[in-house]
């Protein structure tokens, strides 16, 4: 690249010298000719010419320097830390949310984005870790929460679905006071805390139980750390949930509860089997055993005693994770929730744009029908169809955030019209619709309506094809425009649709 610059400079210098020598010779001749009449006038003319040449040379030199100078590489600063990546993702999601026209949906998503923004902007001094206890009903989730809290906070029973709604408890954890998150700072050790949420059980029978189960899954996806509680071998539904949560990037511990029911040798076998089954989803140390609410024991003297919970292995593992992975846990969770928010916003936007686009197509199909119904030609004029399609393309582009010029829209419309002609869609449409019209209205009326109805039908196929094009980011796909048009034709020639379309056409055009 540098050699090219030097070569250009050398060529420009030689050309400049040649022009300069020619100019000097020409100026000398001009001066001599004028000086014969008036030396003073000759000097003034030469001075003006020299000044003009100097100015032109300066302008050429400036723009030459701009052209020849090495281009500065644009430095794009990419987010480095997890919390910066989460912030960028959240900002993109918020932009998408702002485009949603449905006020209720927009407000709901905006409220979620505000919660994420608030949590992302918190200093770690006020930051909390969100831990969710998750699993089947009666697996011992509430008992485990009670044990972690150090006191009974909810009723413990063996009935399925004891916890009817989620309950959140706050635990101060002084041993986390030295934790530091990237880009955030700890203000005071007293503020480090953990929020533990007890959720309703999965697979509760009844519609209400299903709603609670869905709420539990939503809470699980929002957790920084998830405690997945079981009290037996993993059921199929539990394993599927485990796979789904790990697959979306959730950090979790598999907690086998009620270990007090087994002998020491049996515990080791159970633990080994669980670790083998969950490999490679989980690290072996992330599978632990507890006895959150041990069974009452009888002393030799006949007295009954309630043993203390056996949760030390779990607590030790939890604290180890929070100390070593606290930064990534929170940032990764915020990133995941931001991405989910963006996906929901994109889904709503896609539905919104689809509805707007279909409204435009329906409007233009009847415009096309009106234009061509007035044309005395016996067949559909594809050029007029392309003219109608041109404006339709412009409006569809705006719906999908693309500014399409009239020239570009015209080129797209003509290209699609040629494709439809190559596929003989006009003849096929007229044949298909004429049969339907004759079965619906009198023959004389049917023949008068046929051209307009065919125009509307072909405009609809064109519009549907353009929607596919814009949804794919202005791409006709691997098989090109012909495959898209042919697919839309097949979708819109089904009997049920044709009957409904003809019914609407008769109402519009008669």
From TrEMBL:
Subcellular location: Membrane
Gene Ontology terms: biological process: tRNA methylation; tRNA wobble uridine modification
Chief site of localization: membrane
TM region positions: 42-65
Coiled coil: none
UniProt keyword list: GTP-binding, Membrane, Nucleotide-binding, Transmembrane, Transmembrane helix
Highest taxon in the source lineage: Bacteria
GO MF terms held by the record: GTP binding
Keyword Glycosyltransferase: no
G domain: residues covered: 130-258
Single GO cellular component term: cytosol
Bilayer topology: Multi-pass membrane protein
InterPro entries hit by this protein: DUF697 (IPR021147), GTP-bd (IPR006073), P-loop_NTPase (IPR027417), Small_GTP-bd (IPR005225)
PANTHER family in the record: TRNA MODIFICATION GTPASE GTPBP3, TRNA MODIFICATION GTPASE GTPBP3, MITOCHONDRIAL
Name of this chain's protein: GTPase
